[in-house]
């Protein structure tokens, strides 16, 4: 029994070290992306590192897998990026993947490690930073609007999507105007976005785990929406 306990501790320690290493690599990748995004070679619509974090986070918590041909060019504003040479191309492309893996490792670690980059450890975030992060997140939402609309319509699950609403760019590209009346509410929603992302991640995992069960079409959907399977995730 003692040997089993020791093995479990070793495995837990190894997993923690691996996750920490992946998160550290993700932070280095953020710097690589930021440097490229600021360069003259980057297309004008290239996402900032903050917007890219929101984008990759949405990609990870998305309830349905998004094919790479739909999302791969969006971080560059749907333009074909230019690079100095093959080495830079490889470094920037690898940085995007490492950035994504780092976010995934933080999501896996839960509330102890996951915090969107716009949220400071102390004090309030800059609302413009929140808008930039959500703008990136919403680029993935736009690829699956029907599913996200279902979440908004569901009373229980809408709590995971409502914090985003005040920061979503409208048709004119502008977000909700900040006023004396809504400022505190916007800050409250910004502070709730990290929890909302973790809820969406748990929902995605629950849906993936339940998919193999293949529930009856008239049964409640295993994703937790409360709707019939045939009207939800079928």
Ordered list of secondary-structure elements with their pairings:
Elements: H1 2-37, H2 49-61, H3 68-71, H4 86-109, H5 127-141, H6 145-153, H7 162-165, H8 183-211
Helix pairs in contact: 1-4, 2-4, 2-5, 2-8
Protein architecture, described:
By secondary structure, the protein is an all-alpha fold. It has one domain. Helices cover 57% and strands 0% of the residues. The protein is built from 8 helices and no strands. It has helices spanning 2-37, 49-61, 68-71, 86-109, 127-141, 145-153, 162-165, 183-211. Helix 2 (49-61) packs across helix 5 (127-141). The chain starts with a helix and ends in a 23-residue tail after the last helix.
Keywords for this entry:
single chain, 234 residues, 0% strand, globular
**Between the first and last Cα atoms, what is the distance in angstroms?**
45 Å
Q: Give the class from helix and strand content and strand pairing.
A: mainly alpha
Number of domains: 1
Mean of residue pLDDT?
81
- Cα radius of gyration in angstroms: 19 Å
Annotation field: number of helices: 8
Contiguous uncertain segments of 5+ residues: 6-17
Number of extended strands: 0
Helix content: 55-70%
Q: Could you give a short account of the major beta sheet?
A: none
In short:
57% of the residues lie in helices and 0% in strands. By secondary structure, the chain is mainly alpha-helical.
